[in-house]
Amino acid sequence: MDHTSPSTPDTRTGTPAGTRTDITTDIGRGLLAGKAAFITGAGRGIGAAAARLFAREGARVLLAARTEAQLKAVTEEIRAAGGTADYVLCDLADAADVRAAVDRAVDLYGRLDVAFNNGATITPPGPLDQVREADFDHLYAVNLRGPWLAMAAEIAAIRATAGTGAIVNNSSVGSLMANPELPAYGAMKRAVNSLTESAAVTYGPEGIRVNAIAPGGTLTEMIRTWEAHSPGLVERLTANTPLRRAAGPDEIAEAAAWLLSDRASYVTGTVLRVDGGARA
Hints:
CATH class: Alpha Beta
Radius of gyration: 19 Å
Helix content: 40-55%
Structural class: alpha/beta
Strand content: 5-15%
Number of strands: 7
Largest sheet: 7 strands, parallel
Number of domains: 1
CATH superfamily: NAD(P)-binding Rossmann-like Domain
Distance between the termini: 31 Å
CATH topology: Rossmann fold
Shape: globular
Low-confidence stretches: 1-28
């Protein structure tokens, strides 16, 4: 990231210092080349797609989730393709687990540059008055408290090692509107948006960018579980999407990779919709 003041002109070109005028130095370099990346919920779905993509783009990745078999499979796949990857077991509802997982990234790679807080849990769809208290508490622990814990640990690790860096939180397009089928889930994700914006303002002066993505309907195990409880859910989501299809996990991962990369060096505090136009 270029920290030169944008008001200081380049005396040779008359353009603001730090303005990219020649991209030839980027040829042959991955979007995340040289970066150490930490990814939660990385055993399947969007998190696994992100781990594969980040590694292809040159990052050394640490995958975190609760299910070792899934983590091991994705890690071995990345290594077989020539990437650098490892994994750590982590329950996002456990503060000690979260801090230890972030510390593991620094132990492995000597630094932390970027993090994708993707891990989340679900509960059955239904109106607000039918959400069980235990389910609400579990959503809070994993989907809101978990990203908060992770961000705090990641910011400390970035500060202590790379100095500057970027964090992306995985939110949901359902956080941007009324969400009668998933009211508690939507509420937690909307709170994640607020944490994202607050962190961006707080840590921007240090060169730490914080953004979120808000995926629309995406073909993951989570949405298939919701579909089982609420038949026709995917069809309804697709009908309200101008592209008339659901996203693949890889498409969501691409947005996260860009926000974490230096190509997005002037983007912070945004919640980027990746929803096929559903909220247009």
